[in-house]
Design goal:
Spore Coat Polysaccharide Biosynthesis Protein SpsA, Chain A; single chain; 3 helices; globular; alpha/beta; 92 residues
Length: 92
């Protein structure tokens, strides 16, 4: 299984776009996958947008703890044997 960890902070407008692009690619692979979003204390509607998506796993920090802490949270919760991290801002 491939585990994709995505730390996000105030990415309300990008979540659905990112998810749709990612699922398109992951569905083309002959692998099971999981998508893990870590909301790093967003103050917009990021977590509400994440909750609309399925299937995903989501974690939420009450305050911004930084990208490293968010990635670590994801790593500690993966189920897959392959782990990938990507940015949630559609830049990288």
């Amino acid at each position: 299984m491939i585990s994709v960890i995505i730390p996000v902070f105030n990415e309300e407008k990008n979540i659905k776009i990112l998810y749709n692009r990612l699922v398109t690619v992951l569905n083309s692979l002959d692998q099971q996958y999981e998508i893990i979003f870590i909301d790093d204390g967003s103050t917009d509607g990021t977590f509400d947008e994440i909750k609309k998506l399925s299937p995903v796993r989501a974690f939420r920090f009450p305050i911004n703890r930084g990208q490293t802490a968010a990635i670590l949270c994801g790593i500690q919760n993966v189920k897959g044997d392959i782990t990938v991290t990507i940015d949630g801002d559609l830049e990288n």
